[in-house]
């Protein structure tokens, strides 16, 4: 809501961190920025002198920024895919090419909604962003004048350090006029951050430090996946200010940086010397040397790190211990490579093939369906079977080992799930594999997911399991079996492998897993354990599904069915959109697999939606009021949640109707279907409770009720539980209402209170009708009269097509109106009038 204040905050935080980082001796060779970060880059590079900075920041003060009424949306896809989705649409542009798997686009809401729909249909994760500005698109062109004036008033100069422009992907120009022009172009042309990073890497840059807040590190890592680099932030979440800088300094020291340790409270006399292969390591590490008998002699190599760190602050010692673990692993790999008696040289190779996918080919997928339906429900598309991300991992490992049969898969890196692989109808997954001739195979399931499989001649020795207590550990609130019987998990028998829930704490959860025969079942069970922690520890956004894994190490082959494993999931980060954990799976006291950076995406779920997701046959999302009508107030904005609601409430033929509505009409149409299906279910449940039905309350899934329309557009309900259900539906904005009865017509309507022209009143009402209104609330009562006529016309089955005066309001008693011979109740709800017929 406050773009100027946010802009000032970003610039000032960047300014503070830039000073702090430079004070440690960390000085950039080149500088680049992302969006407003490029303005910070102008300060850091010297283009915008410090003396001019306050003048610049003042130009961002609250109330000074005017922006067009356009919206932003982010999508987890490439720039090319996003541009394809924009084809044929007006006033929409790609504004940010952040990395290979994330872009942002900007445009009028109608066009943005269409793009979101197109991408969502392809399974791309995307969502509308909660702010407006129009920056980095031509839609902002008419709002440049104040910025041109601001830049004209600044004393700009040639940079001290090369600053790369994310607009041109080239260094900033050297003349002041050209700099001013580029600064304005920056506001109306897209941010090409991915291309800038690739250009910098091509120019030899290997270390990327984010001097500010945000997610640029992940953009760099995604862009440079598989290529040597370090990307690290100077502003690490969940760490104090000095801890952030110590973390950064430790990482850059390992890369060869000369750090001014005294700035961090480390005495220069105790300053740690640069590590070299062969240096004795701190206690608990095995000293390693590449070729022990030829180890060079040097006083520098005779100083142990343990000695150097004696007396150092605990934070620094811990950081170096973590670094040295990586050094030991790297040294061990080098030693094994150099001393191996026989090593087979392998040539790079590639392959491509298809995996035929269907529930007939993989029947276990019927136990991995997102949407529970009535027992024996035959329509598989309504159940929505999908391939678990962990099954994709198993298939990727199989593909890598088939391409390079001389090796075994000992790990996985950078697993990225782009969209779900749906198996409800037969299809094919196109698979490509590429071996680098050394130890890695990149495997891609085209359009769905990709990862790098790490190969070796044999599995490494499994490390010993180290157990540590959870923070504020308690017994889990349920037994493991209840995960499935109480439907915390949607999984069927072949994926029900969580045997015990042992302990749960603020930072994780432990339990026992049993390997099942289904592909990917064991790792899926580990994900279930992790997912239950999210559900148990949160009241909202409790549903979480996997989208990414940084790394997996395997210390043995895939286990046989029936093998049991201890699983420890430790939470590393949680925010409102995602949760990241590290997981360890062990048999006995030996680790079988270590998983780092498993990320689950959290989906919008409040308490009411959560109940419907778990037990749709017993819970309703819409609310039936004491007056008898059912109302659904749509608060779910994310496209992924809308898709969940559509699949929960609509059968296959209804989903086809939903898709045919077009982007602007889909939300209201779906809201009406949710309201009317819940109205019918609540009606039948009330009749059962009152003894009017033959038996007690029955579970009724939304899919068991089908709503269609006759030739005039009147909704028709088909329900196996009651033959003569009559319904009426109305919707306006994000509000939908419905009413259901048995054996008699009913009518409902909802209208928003707003001024209406005199011509509307003349066409719609007689003089006698207008005398019924309350003159102190004119707009409200005109809306009330109109809504009452709409409700009465629906009850007659005709609608108000033609002459609205033919439905005459004959009398009024409070808020109840007599329309012809039909009694219509009306109520105000916020800015709306709701009307419904009464018997």
What oligomeric state best describes the polypeptide chains here? single chain
User: Count the helices. How many?
Assistant: 23
Rg, Cα atoms, Å: 32 Å
Major sheet? 11 strands, antiparallel
Strand percentage: 15-25%
Helix-strand blueprint:
Layout: H1 3-23, E1 30-32, H2 37-44, H3 50-58, E2 71-75, H4 79-86, E3 92-99, E4 102-107, H5 109-121, E5 126-128, H6 145-152, E6 162-164, H7 176-188, H8 193-202, E7 207-210, H9 216-223, E8 230-233, H10 241-254, H11 305-309, H12 314-339, E9 349-357, H13 380-383, H14 389-403, E10 408-417, E11 427-435, E12 440-445, E13 449-456, H15 482-485, E14 498-505, E15 508-514, H16 521-537, E16 543-554, E17 564-574, E18 578-587, E19 590-603, H17 607-614, E20 623-624, E21 630-633, H18 639-649, H19 652-660, H20 663-689, E22 705-709, E23 715-719, E24 725-732, E25 735-742, E26 748-752, H21 758-764, H22 767-770, H23 778-796, E27 809-813, E28 816-819, E29 822-829, E30 832-838
Parallel strand pairs: 1-6, 7-8
Antiparallel strand pairs: 2-4, 2-5, 3-4, 9-11, 10-13, 10-16, 11-12, 12-13, 14-15, 15-17, 16-19, 17-18, 18-19, 20-21, 21-25, 22-23, 24-25, 26-30, 27-28, 28-29, 29-30
